[in-house]
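Section: Multi-chain targets

For targets with more than one molecule, the full set of components is provided together so that the structure can be written out for the assembly as a whole rather than chain by chain. Components appear in the order listed by the source. The example entry contains three components.
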Amino acid sequence: MTENEKANVRLGTVIYGSLTQGVHVKLDPARSVEDVTVGRYVAIQGEKKRFFGMITDISLEAVDPRAMVMPPDISDPFIAKVVCGTTTYGKLSVLPMLTISGIAGDTEGPQPAKTVPPHFAGVELASQSDVEMVFGKEDKQRFYVGTPLDMETRICLDMEELVKRSNGVFGKSGTGKTFLTRLLLIGMLQKSRTTSLIFDMHNEYGWEGTSEKDHKVKGLKQLFPGKVAVFSLDEKYDQRRKVKSDFVVKIGYDEIEPEDMQMLRSVLNLTDLAVQAVYELARHFGDDKWLQSALDLFDSGDKEFASNHDIAESTWKNLLRGLRMLQRFKFLVPHAPENTVTTILEYISHGKSVVLQFGGYDDIAAYVLVANLLTRRIYDRYREMVDIATSADTKKPDQLVITIEEAHRFLSPEISSQTIFGKIAREMRKYNVTMLVIDQRPSGIDEEVMSQLGTKITCLLDNEKDVDTVLTGVSGKSELKAVLSKLESKQQALIFGHALPMPVVVKVREYGSADSYKELGPTSSGEKAHKTDGLDDLWG
Amino acid sequence: MAVEQKIAEVIETSNSEFLAECYDLDSVPALGSMVRTKGKGCQIYGIVYTSATHSIEPGRRIAARGKAAASEADVFKANPQLAKLLCSDFKVLVVGHSPDKAIYQYLPPSPASIYSFVYACSPVEVKQFTQSLNFLNLIIESRSTVAPDEVIAAFLRYASLTHPAPEEFLVKAGKELAWTLSNDIRRLDSILKRLQP
Amino acid sequence: MTLDITQVYSQIEAMAGDLKSHQSDYAQKLELALTTLKSIPPQQDRLKKKIEDARATWLVAGLEEDVSLHRAAAPCPDDFVVAASDGSHIDVDRHQSTRLFLLNIGLVELQYGSKPDAELSSLPTLYFGDEMQAIRSRDGRQALIEGPLLGIKREVEECRSLADRVCCNETNLPVVGLVDGSLIMWGLVGKHYDDFVIEQLLDDGLIKQFGRFYELNRKRKAAIASYISFPRSTDVINSLRLQLCPRDPVDCDNEFCKGKFEGRECDAVGGLLDRTLFSSILADGERSAVFSSRSSIIERYGVHQVCFFYLKLDEEVARVEVPLWVADNKELLDLVHAVIVGQCHKGFGYPVSLSEAHEQAVVTGADRQQFWDLVDRVMQEGSLAVQHSLKQRSKKRKWL
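Its structure, encoded as tokens over all components, is:
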């Protein structure tokens, strides 16, 4: 039995504080400052209410300031032992966040703390039942994401609730964003009726990916063969990996619109004038023909169009270079045999999530192009469907979550207002489409978009600007900042926002061992059978 | 259990302390040792804070008598009356009482009864009494004794030996002292230095 | 107003001057006394006879041993017992409403040797009512005990308690009983007490107690002695006066001497004290010869006739009195001598047993006050009227 499972591990006593600054807790003599860590949950038993809060700071204090100047003879280990916690003591800063039912029969559930516990209220490490009271028990909607620091209790996210809004996963590179994202996606698959569209730039979600420890971990397709389809942009990659994708995506030149080019402006290094030239081409040749036509013009060396439309030589060359880069992408074909968007929507409407693997095209240009192009069209179609359903009063399509990586490429302040992703983020859940944005430089994302994210899950960030951005608009920001900057570089994440009653630091649940898969598969029996088959195929 | 040997008798008493005269000369209990006596309807526990051997008559000076004697014992042999004219007594700070099974570490409602017998507490009793250390401030704040720190240290050293983990007990006691003496680090330090055997 | 010490000062100075002027005179007298004493032994019997025949106004010592003798103490036995008693009293207070007095006898018994032991106790007795407070004759006369008579009564009681204690001693060791002061009841000398008073206090009182020691001595070595510190007696000097007197038989009422206080032959040693004389003769721990008292009252003592010797201890000369049967018994006398020397050494110049007995007996002013307060309280509680004289009340409160 670990310490946490024992009831009421007393830490100390509330001595002073405020609601905004948090309360200060004098550590009991029997407790060493070394026993507690920032980010741990504590419960404070008031007279009428039980408060739930988090340790945000730990400091050393002395009852008599003279003790600092003339410390007792602590070279004597006995005296040192005695003095610790008495003459000198540890102080915890605790941010009371919630009141949880304090009186028997109170079923109100956790409420934001609107007052502080009284003087000398006892402070304990939060018990398993406290934590469960706050975050809820694992059930058919709640997905276990990890454990609080130094506790065994499971922190669960209400997945149905989570996906109603756009969410973000942040963290500097190597902190386990992908790992977390994969978990969240599993959670959505397992605990909600949501379907996902995942733009899998680095081929990490569909089939097995590598964990940080360099051993392979199962992908979504392996865990949920019946619920997940893998689409691929790169057949050759599939062949190398010896996997068969459900669909090979080809995108016709006729599907690329001028707006897509605008998104690619920075990745293709296009000038503004070059983008304008694209619009010019589109006006002239039509949205579906402009690219083919432009390529033809370049091929034939015809500069008439340019001169007719006052396009400078340099702009024309700039555009030429950009379009040539696109031509390197083999998934771009003059005309695609099947409409990808339609196929994806078909899958999605059947409740299947789609992982779009980029295969060898782990190029930001390809990613921006494809993600943008597909999302815009899917969003339009979804909007249509929702509008129709609303007017006909029929069932709206299921929630769709679009996962994008390198989100700042789509959501930077300069372009977020124009892109579809900015739109999704802002319009929120009106059309049952939300996003899961993954980024290592959240400061590059438009503030407005950030503020619209419902729940943020952030791993260690060490850039001040990134930290500030992530925490914008959160109460107790400075305390959380301390917590955030002290996260371990792996497997720990601070989760806060809509889906949780209060911020929480979790040690992300294990994922990758044989044991872990037992809990990470589909929950219904039918799915399980299916899954087992799939696994046999895979590992057989 | 062996028959308890009474060691002295209360001859002066107040709520916070009492004076007990020994039955035998020079057989005073050690400084800081714990004794028990009776009060009105309760057992009273106390800690010896000073002891003395002196003339039974106030104002009678004791003269040196051993100049020609071969040993200290010879002094008594040559002056048999001395044993009758001297007495040993000790003063005790009351630190708690027990009207029933429970022990309360605060002053009893009424003082120890005059002429009540005084017994030395057994290690078991000391251990039981020292389960809680709230009484320490009764000694720290006592104005009766000129050296309360010595009394505390002597008592705690002795009491620690009655506990299975003496070191742990001393740390606990030390912390208790540290609370009370948080504004007097020097004093705390000096007591703590005396706590270790 | 209290004592005006400045006025006294000049008088003290005058006194000191006067004493100084007499110093050489004094030395001369002492010289003569010594020479005289040393001249006696060859013709001691003559002096003895002269003393017998003399009609002197002085109290003269009877000569029992060679007068110039000085003897160190014999070794003390290893194991022995010393008992001592002393007393004090609270006298009848005329200002108190109740007539009563209190005797407090302190008793000490010290056992030395292989089994050292000590018993210290005090024995207060309250005397009240006519029965206890008076000495009565068979024919109905009575003398109230108070003042000087109470002092005598106390002496008797001290001795009685001492005898009681010694007789109870269960060891077989030699025992010496000590009392403070004289064995001679000087209080009865020269006063005109009725015969029944003297009879009861002396014959049936003190002397009877001596008799108990005497009886005890048949079974074990037992002696009684009294110790007089700083004695002012002149018995021996007076004997020297007789030696110096040219007349034989001596008759102080002769034509020449009658009515004179100086200028007589014998005045050459007048004014000296016995202790001064023996201080020059005795070494530390030595005793003088034994003399006998020739006080008129001694006639009643019989076998217990009081004898005495002087004893030098450090700078002091003390007088030790013993009954004749002790003086005549060399062993007993040596025992008394040795024991008292030892006691004095232990007691820093005064017998330790006596000083402890005194400590046991002593009644301080505070005790006295407490005693009377207690009497008042108990009387009041018993609804007995308490009346104090107005004088007493005025002493209690100082009026302005």
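The beta strands of chain B are 6-13, 17-22, 34-39, 42-55, 86-98, 117-120.
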